[in-house]
Specification:
- The complex is a heterotrimer of chains A (356), B (342) and C (549).
- Chain A has 356 residues and is of the alpha+beta class.
- Chain A has a 6-stranded mixed sheet with strand order 7-8-9-3-10-11, sandwiched between helices. In chain A, strands 2-1-4-5-6 form a 5-stranded antiparallel sheet. A 5-stranded antiparallel sheet of chain A has the order 14-18-15-16-17, with no helix packed on it.
- Chain B has 342 residues and is α/β, with parallel strands linked by helices.
- Chain B has 3 domains: 27 residues; 151 residues, D-Maltodextrin-Binding Protein, domain 2 (3-Layer(aba) Sandwich), CATH 3.40.190; 129 residues, 3-Layer(aba) Sandwich (D-Maltodextrin-Binding Protein, domain 2), CATH 3.40.190.
- In chain B, helix 7 packs across helix 13.
- Chain B starts with a helix and ends with a helix.
- Chain C has 2 domains: 233 residues, MetI-like fold, CATH 1.10.3720; 241 residues, MetI-like (MetI-like fold, Orthogonal Bundle), CATH 1.10.3720.
- In chain C, helix 11 packs antiparallel against helix 12.
- The chains are: A alpha+beta (356), B alpha/beta (342), C mainly alpha (549).
- Chains in contact: A-B, A-C, B-C.
Chain lengths: 356, 342, 549
């Protein structure tokens, strides 16, 4: 059980399963995070990601499965360590600051509650989150971003092994969110703590996490580094959940895949009937009045634009192009080609037709 | 910083409360427990205002400590029944004979010694020796002599049914002594006669009042001419006034109900000797004079003197009945409710 | 098809979860701790004592029960009480909601004054209040004498249903008012703004937004009113309304028939369960706590315009009837007493007695309510809800039933504690637990469970979390609950008479003793002290609401 890699894990979950009544909230959840890394638990709302977080924190008891924090079994058959003994910090979606305590008293709460007990540590965490100047205020006198940072300071003060953040940025307005995200990332990096945060925002997950676990319908579909997850989604479902994707039926012969667009290099060796996937930004267009496709819709975003193309075969494709125009307007016929290798999934259940 | 201060200030009520709590707890812990040595416990249906001076004098004279619980007579009786064998009560001092009768019937009263019982006429004590009357209250008709003369009053209560008395009489159907009076009617005259009389009175526009005192006030004010009340209210009300009241009591020639306030010893009492001493005290000259002088009730001991303002007790023709039978209050209440009087 | 397919390793574990592993029950943070369940269970068991007593007494008589229940009188009186309860509850809700809205959310002239004065009738014992009403509105009362010169010969009779309805409404509507005031203060003003922006007029907003949001608060207040009305004896007996409690009293005091009384009281308990069920349906599944700790926006006050004159008149009439009349009557008694007797001096000792018993009871009641409320709010389940409902039984029973139940148990099984202050406090807890449960419940619902969980992750055990986070945040509810219980205990009579230590006099017993013998002058000083001391607890309630918002 205690292999070398286990030793390095800050947190390990194995086969975690939790039902509410007859409804499974999360099942067969495995997670393994190295010390000091950030993991994003990404999924649509209601997918069970908060339940996983609460099982790790000790607020829900798993029906089956184990949780290990820092190599210590905290939840498993016949074992259940109470939340207060897990040394896990948590930042709640609505922050859950103690409204009857000042900022510094909130921060001191995890350190026996008395400010005088560990003044240097409180000074340290408040400085870390940049709130040293408002330590005497009450929570309701702070802005949303400040409340967020108090919650963070409070969770960090007792130097937890692991910190859990439940949709930490969802209560902030869009303008504030970007800034606070980067601040939080830096604060956590400086603190050198392992973190798991739950989010439904793929952009947030991609930009903040070292690793992302995609969770859909109570199951973790894939856990990977952001780049890899984006480039090599493990399934059709993951690919559509994370960013835009084009799908085409094809036939794989080892390293190449035959499809409507010709023979394309495959990212991984496959055989037989497959469904190929590539990102819209990989699809390049050239204006050609005799080309096999026609631009039927164009959406302009400034830094890039999204074009919808209908091929002669009636297949619909999406292309994201950086820069402007190049004579590509609605109704223009085009040639399409790919320069990057594509993902191919075995089409066991027939060919899903790409929908736009 | 200002916020911080108000934060602290908001704890002040809590601290005050805590302080009060400590004081109260201390008081609670120091509160004396009942010590049964050389002491008796009395459940009294008679009120503190009437009885406490007597109790104090008793303790002064005998050195016996008295723990006394005041309440409504019937509630006290129900409590004694519910307490069963563990009742701490030695004495039940009841406002009326009915409750004594009920406890007697339930077998909860100890017999009183013969010589003590003989202090009082047989009509004012339990034939089973279970209780003894201490003071008595007569049912009378209070009238306003400025409006009518005593000769105009009927010979007995049935006379108020006559048309000439329409709307001129007042009663207090919710009052305990009125209900005891109706119970006595039922016992002596029978259920039907009582029902007929009550129905007739009601049809005759008899006015209902909440209590006896407002009836006297109404007679005094001339609002009604006659009120059916206990005899002592006039005297009690006169005490609180500077001017002389006009209202007078009329005692009927026969069937004047004299209900008693009586004492009894509980069968489970562990201090029967001391309890007996107390009952004797109630019938001794000193206590009897207290009733004569202060409550205007009839002292019931044979030797006692009646207040000169009242006709002597021996002149009153009381109905021939055991007062214990006044315990059938439920039947009376049912009758009064049936007739819509209550 | 033999090629390796890059399927994530995690999705391979889709096999059916094996339930054999780890099914042993271990304590979880979500599951209520044993001590919590135990504490809640003990309190619920205490609250059930009267019910056990009633069943014991009922079983004694066997098949006779049917006879007692089937008496036409029993049935008629039962429906009398039901009708009175419905009428009083409806009128109390109407007055309570109206006054709460007028004093909390409009520009009513002198609203601070009215908000205090209109709550004060709560401190009046119903036996004093009803007596004063009779003196004022009864035959040959003050009003009639005032109107006599105008040729008014007779007023409509105050006795019976109209009087009981009026008196009980006047002395119980503050329960609704207090509860609704708290509800109004917790209402997010942006909801109203949203409704206005969607084209609703102010009255429509009140009907469609405010009222539905106040539903739980109204239901909570109405429940207390309904139970009070069911259990009241003082007002209905003085006003000669044939209510069910009167039937029970007749069995106890008229016939000394404890079994028949128990059968009737059980019927009352059944009715209570029905009322509790209705309240539960009305209460709805509302969650009160705001999701963020953001600052509350200031609530706007509605401008009354020309309506402020009738509004002030309404407040004045209600205050005059409910508070003015009793105080005037008491004042009149006091004048009669003059400067004589050292009755003020005598009153000090019995005031201390009253305060001791009521103070201990209010603290004990809140303590007893805590586990019940925490269990029901934080761990909703059939059993926790049932326990919370049990707490309400005692409140619907006439005081004498609860008192005799404790006489039964106390004298038999706890003779050492029988007729001590301890026993009296126990009776107060059983009688008035719902007052504490109600305010604590409302308060706890405002506290997000996330805040308690935050404390757990910061290393506090569930007990430490209770003392360092939950209790400090519950403070407004604790104070309100204590104050409500306190002022209700101050005026309680039957249990005090029967269960207090022998020779233990309180303001309430003193007032009763004096009025019983028509020594009204002697009742005046204790009555005024009672009103004054209880008014302090109303002040605490209102103060805390102000601080809360």
């Amino acid at each position: 059980m205690t292999t070398e890699t286990d030793q390095q894990s800050a947190i390990r979950c194995r086969h975690l399963c939790k039902h509410f009544g007859d409804v499974p909230a999360a099942c067969g959840v495995d997670l393994d995070i190295e010390s000091g890394r950030f993991l994003a638990l990404l999924g649509p709302s209601g997918c069970g990601k908060t339940t996983v977080l609460r099982m790790i924190a000790g607020f829900e008891m798993p029906d089956i499965g184990e949780v290990e924090i820092g190599g210590r079994l905290v939840s498993g058959p016949d074992v259940f360590v109470q939340p207060e003994q897990r040394r896990v910090g948590m930042v709640f979606q609505e922050y859950a600051l103690f409204p009857h305590l000042t900022v510094e008293e909130n921060a001191a709460f995890g350190l026996n509650g008395r400010v005088s007990h560990r003044p240097e540590r409180i000074h340290e965490v408040l400085t870390l989150v940049g709130l040293e100047g408002v330590r005497d205020r009450m929570p309701h006198e702070l802005s949303g971003g400040q409340q967020q940072r108090v919650a963070l300071a409070r969770a960090l003060a007792p130097r937890p092994e692991l910190i859990l953040l439940d949709e930490p940025f969802s209560n902030l307005d869009a303008a504030l969110r970007d800034r606070v995200r980067q601040e939080v990332r830096q604060i956590l990096r400086k603190a050198g703590v392992t973190a798991i945060f739950v989010t439904h925002d793929q952009e947030e997950a991609l930009s903040l996490a070292d690793e992302i676990a995609v969770m859909i319908d109570g199951r973790i579909m894939q856990t990977d580094r952001p780049e890899r997850l984006y480039r090599r989604p493990a399934s059709h479902l993951v690919a559509t959940f994370l960013g835009d994707a084009n799908f085409l039926p094809g036939t794989a012969r080892g390293d190449t895949v035959e499809c409507e667009l010709g023979a394309l290099p495959a990212l991984e060796s496959v055989q037989g009937e497959v469904e190929i996937m590539f990102r819209p930004e990989d699809l390049l267009l050239t204006a050609d009045d005799n080309g096999p496709g026609e631009i039927i819709e164009r959406t302009y975003f400034g830094h890039d634009q999204m074009l919808k193309i209908r091929m002669n075969s009636q297949t619909l494709l999406k292309s994201r192009l950086v820069g402007c125009c190049r004579g590509l307007h609605e109704g223009q016929r085009v040639r399409v080609h790919l320069e990057t290798p594509v993902m191919a999934y075995p089409s066991r259940y027939g060919c899903p037709v790409a929908t736009v | 910083m200002k916020k911080k201060l108000t934060h602290v200030a908001s704890y002040i009520p809590l601290l005050l409360l805590l302080l009060v709590g400590i004081v109260l707890t201390g008081r609670f812990l120091l509160m004396e427990r009942v010590d049964t040595r050389n002491a008796i416990t009395i459940y009294s249906g008679r009120s503190e205002d009437l009885i406490q001076p007597l109790i104090d004098r008793f303790t002064e004279e005998t050195g016996i400590r008295v723990y006394i619980r005041y309440g409504q007579t019937a509630e006290m009786a129900a409590t004694i029944l519910e307490e069963g064998r563990n009742s701490p009560a030695d004495i039940f001092f009841a406002q009326d004979a009915g409750a004594l009768g009920a406890l007697s019937r339930a077998g909860r009263l100890a017999p009183l010694p013969e010589d003590l019982l003989e202090e009082v006429e047989p009509r004012f004590r339990s034939p089973k020796h279970h209780w003894i009357g201490v003071s008595g209250r007569a049912r009378v008709a209070a009238y306003n002599p400025h409006r009518i003369s005593p000769e105009q009053l009927p010979e007995d209560l049935s006379g108020f049914c006559a048309p000439e008395w329409q709307g001129r009489v007042g009663w207090a159907p919710a009052n305990g002594s009125f209900q005891a009076f109706v119970t006595a009617l039922r016992v002596t005259q029978g259920e039907e006669a009582t029902r007929t009389w009550l129905a007739c009175m009601q049809a005759n526009g008899t006015r209902a009042y909440a209590k006896n005192t407002p009836i006297i006030a109404a007679v005094e004010a001339g609002e009604i001419d006659v009120g059916l009340v206990n005899h002592y209210y006039i005297h009690a009300m006169q005490q609180g006034r500077q001017t002389t009241m006009h209202v007078r009591n009329h005692y009927f020639a026969s069937d004047v109900l004299v209900n008693v306030a009586g004492a009894s010893i509980i069968d489970t009492s562990g201090n029967k000797d001391l309890a007996e001493q107390f009952v004797r005290y109630l019938l001794a000259a000193d206590a009897q004079r207290y009733f004569t002088d202060h409550t205007y009730e009839y002292p019931l001991a044979a030797h006692a003197e009646t207040n000169p303002a009242l006709p002597p007790l021996r002149t009153l023709q009381t109905p021939d009945m055991d007062l214990s039978e006044l315990d059938d209050l439920e039947g009376t209440l049912r009758l009064l409710q049936d007739l819509g009087i209550l | 098809m033999s090629a390796h397919i890059p399927i994530n390793r995690h999705s391979e574990t889709r096999s059916e979860p094996s339930l054999s592993a780890g099914q042993r029950r271990v304590p979880s943070a979500k599951r209520p701790s044993l001590s919590l369940r135990l504490a809640a269970g003990i309190v619920a068991a205490l609250a059930l004592l009267p019910l056990v007593y009633l069943i014991v007494r009922t079983v004694e008589i066997g098949p006779e029960i049917v006879g007692i229940l089937a008496r036409p009188r029993t049935v008629a009186v039962f429906f009398n009480s039901l009708g009175l309860t419905v009428a009083v509850t409806a009128s109390s809700v109407l007055i309570g909601v109206l006054l709460a809205w007028l004093t909390a959310r409009t520009d009513l002239p002198g609203r601070h004054f009215w908000s205090t004065v209109t709550c004060l009738p709560l401190v009046l014992p119903s036996y004093v209040g009803a007596f004063a009403l009779i003196a004022a509105l009864g035959p040959n009362g003050m009003l009639q004498r005032l109107l006599a010169p105008l040729g008014v010969e007779q007023l409509p009779s105050i006795y019976g249903f109209p009087g009981a309805w009026l008196a009980l409404t006047l002395f119980t509507y503050p329960y609704v008012q207090l509860s609704v005031r708290a509800g109004l203060r917790g209402l997010d003003p942006s909801l109203e703004d949203a409704a206005r922006s969607l084209g609703r007029t102010a009255p429509q907003v009140f009907r469609e937004v405010i009222l539905p949001h106040l539903r739980p608060a109204i239901a909570a207040g109405a429940l207390l009113v309904a139970l009070y009305t069911l259990s009241d004896f003082g007002a209905v007996s003085l006003l000669q309304f044939n209510a069910f409690t009167r039937a029970i009293y007749v069995q106890y005091t008229g016939a000394l028939d404890r079994s028949a009384a128990a059968v009737l009281a059980l019927l009352l308990v059944a009715l209570t369960f029905l009322i509790l069920l209705i309240e539960y349906r009305l209460r709805g599944r509302t969650r009160y706590y705001r999701s963020s700790a953001g600052a509350l926006r200031h609530q706007r006050r509605a401008a009354l315009g020309i309506w402020r004159y009738p509004a002030v008149a309404l407040c004045a009439i209600i205050s005059l009837l409910a508070l003015g009349v009793p105080v005037l009557v008491t004042g009149y008694w006091l004048l009669q007493a003059g400067a004589a007797d050292g009755q003020w001096l005598q009153s000090i000792d019995i005031t201390l007695n009253s305060v001791t018993a009521s103070g201990l009871a209010s603290a004990a009641c809140v303590l007893a309510a805590l586990p019940i409320v925490i269990y029901a709010v934080r761990h909703p389940s059939h059993s926790s809800r049932l326990m919370e409902r049990c707490a309400y039984i005692g409140h619907a029973l006439p005081g004498i039933v609860v008192a005799l139940a404790l006489v039964f148990f106390g004298a038999r099984y706890a003779p050492y504690f029988y007729q001590t202050l301890f026993m009296l406090v126990l009776a107060y807890i059983i009688l008035f637990l719902p007052l504490a449960v109600g305010s604590l419940r409302a308060s706890l619902l405002q506290i997000s469970p996330r805040i308690e969980e935050a404390a757990r992750t910061l290393g506090r055990t569930s007990k430490q979390t209770l003392t360092s986070v939950t209790l400090p945040l519950l403070r407004p509810g604790l104070f309100t609950g204590m104050a409500l219980v306190f002022l209700t205990c101050m005026k309680e009579l039957p249990a005090t008479l029967i269960l207090g230590p022998t020779g233990f006099h309180t303001l309430a017993t003193r007032i009763w003793g004096a009025t019983e013998e028509a020594f009204f002058a002697r009742a005046a000083a204790p009555a005024l002290i009672l009103v004054l001391v209880s008014a302090i607890s109303i002040w605490i309630i209102l103060k805390h609401e102000e601080g809360d918002a």
